[in-house]
């Protein structure tokens, strides 16, 4: 398999620093989410200023500085999908980011996990392609390796309940078949997303600290898909609380 051909050469033909210039006062810690409405509301909740803009072929990604209790954090709206997300995170690292809190929705594979509840991934099943360019091929990868204790201690002290376990990361949102669902559940997955395993591989390769967590959205089952609170405008007040939680976690890292 081509994806087993991991190349440890740290110098690629095109590197982030070939396109991105470091910014001397760029915040060392960033916060990002995938949902556009949650991001918009989060930005409006803080004094902020534009720092710079990075981009992909068909989308601009503005990067902002927000001011929180005498601290500064970078804030941006991450693109969906493993390859797109990792490409933009590469840019942020080149700008000067060293730590990050990334949060977003996931589909749950266990109906007992309530909608908008917090899920902490500890490992990810690598059913995408991007991670194999950053780490040696394997079925799974550790997630939140260097921040897990800090994250769980923060949630416990704040009295915030959460589930923790393995996530199934896949590129093929329309190819989540019942047989695959059963196999991933048998492997221990409690939820499914599109970026986590690739983000974990990037963090390990680049030596940055990325705290990644989810809030439960749709429910995947063998009987019927339940959209729950997946749409961007659903349960916005509850999602605002989760966004504020992400900021508080970033300040605690």
Distance between the termini: 38 Å
Shape: globular
Our Rg estimate from Cα atoms comes to 17 Å
Mean pLDDT: 93
Helix count equals 7
Query: SS-based structural class?
Result: alpha/beta
Number of strands: 10
* Spatial strand sequence of the major β-sheet: 5-9-8-6-10
Note down, in words, how this protein is organized.
It is a single chain. The radius of gyration is 17 Å and the shape is globular. It has helices at 16-19, 36-44, 82-95, 148-158, 178-186, 196-206, 236-252; strands spanning 29-33, 47-56, 59-68, 71-77, 99-108, 118-127, 140-142, 162-170, 189-193, 209-219. The chain has a five-stranded mixed β-barrel, surrounded by four helices. Strand 8, helix 5 and strand 9 form a beta-alpha-beta unit. It is built from seven helices and ten strands.
How are the elements arranged and paired?
Layout: H1 16-19, E1 29-33, H2 36-44, E2 47-56, E3 59-68, E4 71-77, H3 82-95, E5 99-108, E6 118-127, E7 140-142, H4 148-158, E8 162-170, H5 178-186, E9 189-193, H6 196-206, E10 209-219, H7 236-252
Parallel strand pairs: 1-4, 1-5, 5-10, 6-8, 8-9
Antiparallel strand pairs: 2-3, 3-4, 5-9, 6-7, 6-10
Short description:
The protein is α/β, with parallel strands linked by helices and 253 residues long. Helix content is 30%, strand content 32%.
Q: What characteristics describe this protein?
A:
five-stranded mixed beta barrel; 10 strands; 253 residues; alpha/beta
